[in-house]
Write a structure and sequence with these properties.
The protein is mainly β and about 350 residues long. The chain contains no helices and 26 strands. The strands form 6 sheets. Strands 25-24-23-22-21-20-19-18-26 form a 9-stranded antiparallel beta sheet, with no helix packed on it. A 5-stranded mixed beta sheet has the order 11-17-16-13-14, with no helix packed on it.
Length: about 350
Amino acid sequence: MDQGSVYVFVRAGAAWTEQAQLTASDGAAADLFGRSVALSGDTVLVGAIHDDVGANLDQGSVSVFTRTGGTWTQQAKLTASDGAPGDGFGVIAALGGDSALVGAYRDGIGSNVNQGSAYVFAGFGPTPGTLTLDPPTATNPVGSQHCVTATVEDAAGNPVADVTVRFTVIGAVNTGGSATTDAGGEAVFCYTGPITPGQDAITAWADTNDDNVQDPGEPGGAATKTWVLPASTPLCDVTGGGWIIAANGGRANFGGHARSSETGQTNGQLQYQDRGPAQRMNVHSLNVQAIGCVSSMEVQVYGQATISGSGTFSYLVELKDLAEPGAGHDTYRLRLQNGYDSGEQVLQGGNVQIPQQ
């Protein structure tokens, strides 16, 4: 009894039609929900001056609703940070720009009983209506970086700034993160691809209330990513051998060669031994699937290998020929499908040679 509700009507020409009845998700008898109402675009504030907040009887509250399409969803509940019983918070409410103003006509100030006050809340900009991901599909070489841009717009197609967008990647890579939309309504998320071919499913959604849960009405989007081996650089050639201190602190020896023909046919043999103690292993290549001369001083080699004599694992070796002799200058890095990563390390001994084409 006396819980209260608010009805939303929309006009088409001269005709008004009821669109929704709004009630508080935690409404109770005698709340007087609907004592005040403020509407701006797709956002409405509804005051309930007799709402009990915790142990404070009749402290009052204001519920925030947003509309996506024709659906209204409660997004938040506003209360006074210093609320007390009988404040009457929500007796009047106003909404303009990105701010809300809420009156508490019986708020006690110091020793002044029922002096009253008003509270200002920020963050009431345009309501996200759509979220799209660009590019929706893409194909990139394995091991490279991929960036996806989420664009958030309101129902009228205007960009919505300062919205947290949460990204999830599942597939060849499993990762995630978040970014905040800029003035153009865009948020960018980047991640590094796997060293083996595969596909990713990328999803994102606008977390309008920053609760880390996709609530009804919070728009989302999806994209796909395909990772492929790069085309080999014709006549690319690299030879090297030496030792490094891997990222895990162990000494590791490496050696071998890889090259491609004028038509891009590849051959070679690579080996790597991590002597531990953190992660002892012997890696021997089974093939060279692709070799790319990134520059006259850098080569990337892709293929498959065994680890300690068993299995088949994709690998990516990155070598840089920066000076002669190579010790103290040239660098080596090995990444394996099982997650092993030596890190890019300067040679402690040995040499890398990339003949000029």
